Amino acid sequence: DVRIGRIFNCYGRHMTWTGGREKAVAAICRKVAQATHMKGPPIEVWGGGDQRRSFLYVDDAIEGIRRLMKSSFTSPINIGPAKSYSISELVQIVAQTSGKHITFKYVDGPVGVPSICCDTTLLKLILNWEPQVTLEEGLKVAYSWVEQRVIDSRAKVA
Fold first, then answer.
1. Over 70: is that where the pLDDT of 129 sits?
2. What local confidence, expressed as pLDDT, does residue 102 receive?
3. CA Rg, the chain, in Å?
4. Is the pLDDT score of 11 beyond 90?
5. For residue 87, with 0-12 CB atoms within 10 Å meaning exposed, 13-18 middle and 19 or more buried, which class applies?
6. Cα distances (Å, whole numbers) of residue 138 to 69, 89, 131, 157
7. Distance of CA 67 to CAs 55, 90, 97, 135, Å?
8. What is residue 56's three-state secondary structure?
9. Three-point CA angle 117, 118, 120, nearest 5°
10. Residue 112's pLDDT is what?
């Protein structure tokens, strides 16, 4: 039997956070973790900040997959939150989570499609479930994890 779950912008501990292959959450967390309070240069954010995405915390991704695998549903199903955030909102939430007062500027760079938002109709109907971790809650863990990697990488250089 086959199950097809489409995961939307998954983030959390152990995500790729450096090296050019990281996704939006990891890149923003890293840039904020590396930034100094307002004294340093602004962090760069690709595009105009109005691109929208649904962000799924890894624990919810695992739970969604677990529920899908236990079901008899064999058509594709979206696994992600119904709420989407602009990249500008993501940057603000990460900055707030960090406790830093930083500045940022928008620069040219890859931005992808204007909006990707998860339709959770089937998720709720078939699996009687939806993601439970808010972006703010998930970012507390994800940012802390990335920040520790940044600190560790600085210690290795010193």
1. yes
2. 87
3. 17
4. yes
5. buried
6. 24, 14, 11, 29
7. 19, 28, 30, 21
8. strand
9. 145
10. 87
Provide DSSP, 61-101: HHHHHHHHHHS---S-EEES-S--EEHHHHHHHHHHHHT--
Residue 1 is encoded by which pair of tokens? 């039997």
Which pair of structure tokens corresponds to residue 125?
């109907």
Query: For residues 11 and 57, is the Cβ–Cβ distance under 8 A?
Result: yes
Tokens of 121: 């109709």
**How far is 86 from 114, CA to CA, in rounded Å?**
10
**Per-residue DSSP letters for 20-50?**
S---HHHHHHHHHHHPPSTTSPPEEEES-S-
Q: pLDDT by residue (tens digit) across 104-119?
A: 999 998 888 989 999 9
> In the numeric block, which tokens belong to residue 122?
């089937």
CA distance linking residue 46 with residue 127, whole number of Å = 36
Indicate whether 61 pLDDT > 90.
yes
Is residue 88 pLDDT above 90, yes or no? yes
In angstroms, the CA 52 to CA 36 distance is 27
